[in-house]
């Protein structure tokens, strides 16, 4: 808790300490729902040979995850006492936040984790995660040596019609007006990269951005002959993400209400939906296989399964799964709003501000200042030392 002391620049009375507390009855309810949840029988699509996931999540993986989540997973050991509440948590409610650049909502509330340095020359850094991640990937899995810097991790909780510009405006107000920083750097992946680009392009206090997601697809008529093998693999990965890999995103972009209601009715449904994304998006080298699935003998990573259960438990026990889909309306709505931040010239980041990218082999960034041989979509979780090094 050395890093829980608010700096003198923080607006008086606007920021309050916050403690994560999950009632025992909520944990019991989650386990009861899990025990009563049915896994359907075998069919061709859910049991392809060798754990093939081209048609979706393998049934055997969900069986193993359900069994471990229901019988062996211990929220108390893995989360609050030893991890989540070991980090200083803070809350800014509607009164403290005030009006944003886009709207004035008394219901807006921001919960964030921060490590405040006592060094007056420390450089503030805002770290943003994406979907289906959470601050757990930045704070818990692998200790990240950023203890001399401010560490802020979303998420926005509100029932307003918030888009990415609104979220960027709220985070800008948090960093500048409430926390009182005169400048800061932003780092983000996935949705965090889009919001980070908006912060760097539109908000004066954000002076630099390091992003690890910016999908750029093969231009029409472009030859692949002059590309390296790594670049060709990146093109192939991007093509897969744009076709087979984005069907979930189209659902979340066009029918977020339906998807949110379905995912919030049953923890096993949420585990299947989110678990598939981790299995598809993470570089297998980051979580080597250490177990085999009963029935098929297919190898899998139990360590990764535990990380998935951590993330899904957080979504379920805080009741935020249905409210976490808001950005997909902007990025994937068919015939909807204009392109989001990475594709839009209005979010160009110009000098003297700094913009840089970290490229991970399966991460979704086309060209980068810093390239890493391993790592995927959840870069901070998979390669915890790389992001701090790139920030430096």
TrEMBL record:
Q: What protein name is recorded for this chain?
A: Alpha/Beta hydrolase protein
Active-site residues? 190, 328, 377
Q: What are the UniProt keywords, alphabetically? A: Hydrolase
Q: Which organism is it from?
A: Immersiella caudata
Known Gene3D superfamilies for this protein?
alpha/beta hydrolase
By sequence similarity, the record places it as follows: Belongs to the peptidase S33 family.
UniProt domain Epoxide hydrolase N-terminal: residue ranges: 15-137
- List the Gene Ontology MF annotations in alphabetical order: epoxide hydrolase activity
This protein's source sits in the domain of life called: Eukaryota
Q: Name one GO biological process term.
A: epoxide metabolic process
- One Pfam family named in its UniProt record: EHN
